[in-house]
Amino acid sequence: MKRAFRNKTRSKKRLQRLVADAVEEAIDYNPENTDKKIGRALFSGLFFGLLIAFICFIYSPTLRDYVYWVLPETHTTLIDKNADTGRFQREIRRVERRIATLKKRLAALIPKKSYIIVDTSGNHIIVMRGKRLVHKGVCSTGSYVLLRASNNRQWIFRTPRGQFKVLSKLYAPVWYMPDWAFVEEGRPIPPRDSPKRFEPGVLGEYALSIGRGYLIHGTLYKRMLGMPVTHGCVRVGDEDLKIVWKNSMFGTKVLIY
Amino acid sequence: MSRRKKKINLLPFFRNRRPAQIVFIIFFLLPVLLVSILLIFLPVYEQMKEQSLEIKSGDQKKSGLLASSEKLAAQMSSLQVEEAYLKSLYALRRKDSIMLSIDLHDSLLSILIKGIPARQCTIKEYRMSHAIPHIAARDTMHSWLYPPFKLQKEWATIPKAPIRIMDAPKDTIEANAMAGEEISIEKNDVHFTMQFNRGLTVVVEQLQTPSWKGRWKKFIYDLERLHSQALKTIKELKQKQLPQHQLWIEVYISREDAKAVYRATPHSLEMALRL
What we know:
The complex is a heterodimer of chains A (257) and B (275). By secondary structure, chain A is an alpha+beta fold.
């Protein structure tokens, strides 16, 4: 009884499978359906193909680099076992001599005497002698403020970059206040020769002029040291300023970056 | 009753429809192959061919000067690379603006003013294009390194000059109120890319992990770079030229160093490189 039931179920399943296959085959050979499927395949193939092609286009430099990675390196150094070794070694010595000369010339570019380096992004001042660090201190440099006045005048407060030289050393300097100093404080601008323009004591004990009106000087606002707050000058604390003053003379190089 | 043989499926979709599967594969591969051949394989092939031509012409010039062993040839090659670097450094001394030197041999990135190193940053890590060893394997490396590379374009996550616009106060009361405003120190993440002539790109990355805001800025910066690269490729294709492969060097330095280098370098930057 049980066996008969099992056989019946098996044959039923077989029959179902056969029907399913037949239906699938019928669909396969339905010309309308096949056309639809091919159209769909064409568009989806093109869509995904273009998508991948776009990604390949965007990342083509990276992919090209991987091609180089896969390719073997072809060494093309000119080697001949029967070549004249002596001649080649003479050529090597010639190149070595040229290198030594270049190294000497480059070393000669570094000043033997003291020179000053100002880092405007980190607000540091460094005194160097040759390749030796003499002193490193904190300073304040240009604030990058663009001050706009009502009469279309504007000033940008940045420390100039490049190589400068100490043009003069000033003791107890007096600040000649430019127009922007009055504009910034909302005060009326006095005439050029007005005594209101002269302000002693604000530049500290010493100042070094590096040209174009820029100075390395002291400050009353020590709290601000290390921050970009100046109008273009380099402000240094009293102790650091003393060392900078002592190690500089007329013509000392000042490198600002 | 024999069961029907199962059809082999080429793809997981369009099951049991061989013609549809073949159509899909053809139309999928067509644009992919076109782009990869035109933008990936052909430029590499052309460049390799060009280099081998250079070598051949170089052979004629160097007639007679052949190394007897690989060791001697390698020594000569490294000396020539060093000479090219030093010559570039020496040439930079004449320039008035700030210049850059990257010495991967000694892991140093330096800011130079009139040939004097104003700041030397240690390169903690670096990676380079896989195409560079191909040049290094040939005798053309030193001629690629000299004269100094000239900057053409740059991208960065920080502005070159952090300019803040301020309107002048009307009176002293307003000026006093403005003076009380706190000045914050910039703590932005720094990533920048410099594209030089002779197909060289230098990517400078900060060592520190970027903040969430920094990551977003980096994402935008990466998009800008990709966009510019894509435009360049389109321009080259329009001129019926194959895209030139950019050789790249990626250096990792500290955030402070990266900021100092980016802010210090002018738009007319020139650079000496030693590999």
